[in-house]
Specification:
The protein has helices spanning 46-53, 76-86, 102-113, 118-127, 143-155, 173-188, 200-205, and strands at residues 6-17, 20-31, 35-40, 61-66, 69-70, 87-90, 161-165, 192-196, 208-213, 216-217. It is of the alpha/beta class. Strands 6-7-8-3-9-10 form a six-stranded mixed β-sheet, with helices on both faces. A four-stranded antiparallel β-sheet has the order 2-1-4-5, with helices on one face. The chain binds adenosine-5'-triphosphate (ATP). Adenosine-5'-triphosphate binds at residues 17, 20, 22, 40, 42-48. Residues 8-218 form the ABC transporter domain. InterPro entries: AAA+_ATPase, ABC_transporter-like_ATP-bd, ABC_transporter-like_CS, ABC_transpr_LolD-like, MacB-like_ATP-bd, P-loop_NTPase.
């Protein structure tokens, strides 16, 4: 079977919360291997869209296709299952387990997915430039290093889609640069990345910017 070239597609996607239309007839299409930034003012619907695309929420109407699968009518169990197999998430807050080393934190993600495999956990950390900090605890790492452990954790199970929500929000400029370089490296490797950000520097590093305004895609 040939693999679909489209990683993400939404058709007339709408999400309402009571009277509030958080997402209004949104149509987006992201190719496999694309690096896309999702930008827009506060309240424009970025989180709402991300939550649907990462199977944390479902739409009020419209369709969502992820990695060639129609995810529109997934129930909670199916969403959880799909998320575990297809989606890697990087958050602004690191959510690392403080008493586990960098390597163990990454292996824990493997454990929840299938089985821990130390060589591939090491490889994921090497990929993000953290091969020299495997045995460090989170509090022995800089913010940027912790975020790179989180990126390794997000990609260790080889998810086809990587989502990042303000991944450098808590970092200084130097660490922001290193994390950005890591995403660019992953992009060069052909991974599909969708990044929510307010930061024009990050937005400028993406291949394309999808802009939201009052729940609508404006460009
Ligand atoms: N659970 C909810 N219940 C009611 N209204 C909601 C809910 N979630 C979001 N909204 C509303 O939907 C709109 C879009 O919110 P959303 O969080 O998607 O914006 P955002 O672009 O991510 O904003 P920010 O950049 O501030 O995080 C806002 O008007 C918000 O108040």
């Amino acid at each position: 079977m040939t693999q679909p070239k489209i990683a993400i597609e939404t058709r007339h996607l709408t999400r309402k919360f009571g009277d509030i239309v958080a997402l209004d007839d949104a149509n987006i299409s992201v190719r496999k291997g694309e690096f896309v930034a999702l930008m827009g003012a506060s309240g424009s619907g970025k989180t709402t869209l991300m939550n649907i695309l990462t199977c944390l929420d479902s739409a009020s109407s419209g369709e969502v296709w992820l990695d060639g699968v129609n995810a529109t009518a997934f129930n909670e169990e199916e969403r959880r299952e799909f998320r575990a197999r297809h989606i890697g998430l990087v958050f602004q807050q690191f959510h690392l387990i403080p008493y586990l080393t960098a390597l163990e934190n990454v292996m824990l993600a493997q454990y929840y997915h299938s089985v821990p495999d130390e060589p591939s956990a090491r490889h994921a950390l090497e990929l993000v430039g953290m091969g020299h900090r495997l045995e460090h605890l989170p509090n022995q790492l800089s913010g940027g290093e912790q975020q790179r452990v989180c990126i390794a954790r997000a990609l260790v199970n080889e998810p086809p889609l990587i989502f990042a929500d303000e991944p450098t929000g808590n970092l200084d400029e130097e660490n922001e640069r290193k994390v950005l370089e890591t995403f660019q490296h992953l992009h060069d490797e052909g991974r599909t990345i969708i990044m929510v950000t307010h930061n024009p520097v990050l937005g400028g590093c993406a291949e394309r910017i999808i802009r939201l305004q009052h729940g609508k895609i404006v460009s």
